[in-house]
């Protein structure tokens, strides 16, 4: 009886201590209380503090969305709120009640006067395959509005939606664009079977820069391995071609079973032997050896 009595006494003492601790703690503030208490010059550290003090996940989300809707919020605070909301989207079930409003806030911020906020808002919108965000980017690339982000960034963001309708625009940019914009367009066309002819043409065009031809060839490989095999064969066996491009093409063939099977025959192997004897490029020689080792032996007779 004594032991049981002691245990019960200890339990009551512990419960009493815990109760007193909870009584002395300040009550957690609701999102509305937190937002009302914040000063106009709320710092990022202040925001982190009040997020920790918010009573629930829901009240924290409510506060962050209200911050984005508040025109007096500074760009730095908006960016922090966007980062925290972006992290919260990885809890889709809990975030679901706030998702529609989150998209609305992103659409508003895509037109922000602050370029950092615009960039992050459009980044998040295109990760969501949001049609409004995509349209804003297309209009900038097509010259229908002042670009909201640099053209290369807009092309990269648009390319995230492999099932979108931006392929015609990418084909146009792949032909008429320049610099990084053109490169992003060529990358995007890797997901478009209708661009095979264009990619093959650019890959084979000796007037193009080697880097552009290489990028077009790699996108062609993704879009059509067998068509890439035809182009790669001509590139590799042409002694007037750039050795770097020949090396890249042959290496890509070697690591693409469908392309390797399409290109590999007695004539191609004989051609590789000739190229190996003629070239001074160590990289190309190595690629030829690697290809030969990876392929099955020729049948006898």
Indicate the topology:
Layout: H1 2-24, H2 31-37, H3 44-53, H4 57-69, H5 75-88, H6 92-109, H7 115-127, H8 131-141, H9 151-158, H10 167-176, H11 179-188, H12 196-204, H13 210-223, H14 225-237, H15 243-254, H16 257-263, H17 266-278, H18 282-294
Helix pairs in contact: 2-4, 4-5, 4-6, 5-7, 6-7, 8-9, 9-11, 10-11, 11-13, 12-13, 12-14, 13-14, 13-15, 14-15, 14-16, 15-18, 17-18
Summarize the structure.
The protein has 301 residues and is mainly alpha-helical. The protein has 18 helices and no strands.
Salient structural properties:
mainly alpha; 72% helix
Query: Could you spell the SSE succession in H and E letters?
Result: HHHHHHHHHHHHHHHHHH
Please give the alpha-carbon distance between the first and last residues: 98 Å
Strand fraction band?
Answer: under 5%
Give the helix level as a range of percent: over 70%
Q: What is the residue-mean pLDDT, rounded to a whole number? A: 87
Q: What multimeric state do the chains show?
A: single chain
Q: Please tell me what the overall shape is.
A: elongated
Overall SS class: mainly alpha
Number of strands: 0
How is the main sheet built?
none
Unreliable residue stretches: none
Number of helices: 18
- Rounded to an integer in angstroms, the radius of gyration calculated over CA atoms is 30 Å
């Amino acid at each position: 009886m004594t032991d049981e009595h002691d245990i019960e006494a200890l339990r009551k003492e512990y419960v009493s201590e815990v109760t007193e601790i909870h009584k002395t703690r300040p009550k957690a503030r609701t999102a509305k209380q937190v937002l009302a208490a914040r000063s106009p010059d709320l710092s990022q550290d202040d925001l982190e503090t009040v997020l920790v003090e918010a009573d629930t996940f829901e009240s924290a989300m409510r506060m962050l969305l209200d911050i984005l809707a508040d025109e007096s919020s500074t760009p730095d605070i908006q960016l922090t709120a966007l980062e925290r909301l972006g992290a919260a989207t990885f809890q889709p079930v809990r975030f679901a009640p706030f998702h529609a409003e989150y998209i609305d806030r992103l659409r508003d911020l895509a037109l922000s006067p602050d370029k950092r906020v615009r960039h992050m808002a459009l980044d998040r919108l295109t990760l969501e395959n949001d049609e409004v965000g995509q349209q804003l980017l297309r209009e900038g690339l097509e010259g229908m509005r002042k670009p909201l982000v640099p053209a290369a960034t807009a092309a990269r963001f648009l390319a995230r939606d492999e099932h979108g309708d931006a392929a015609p625009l990418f084909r146009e940019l792949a032909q008429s664009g320049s610099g990084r914009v053109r490169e992003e367009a060529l990358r995007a066309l890797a997901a478009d079977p209708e661009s095979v002819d264009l990619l093959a043409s650019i890959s084979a065009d000796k007037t193009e820069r080697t880097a552009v031809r290489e990028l077009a060839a790699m996108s062609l490989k993704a879009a059509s391995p067998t068509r890439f095999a035809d182009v790669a064969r001509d590139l590799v066996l042409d002694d007037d071609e750039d050795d770097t491009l020949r090396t890249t093409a042959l290496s890509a063939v070697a690591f693409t079973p469908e392309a390797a099977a399409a290109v590999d025959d007695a004539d191609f192997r004989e051609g590789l032997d000739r190229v190996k004897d003629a070239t001074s490029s160590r990289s190309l020689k190595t690629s030829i050896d690697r290809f030969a080792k990876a392929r099955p032996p020729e049948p006898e007779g």
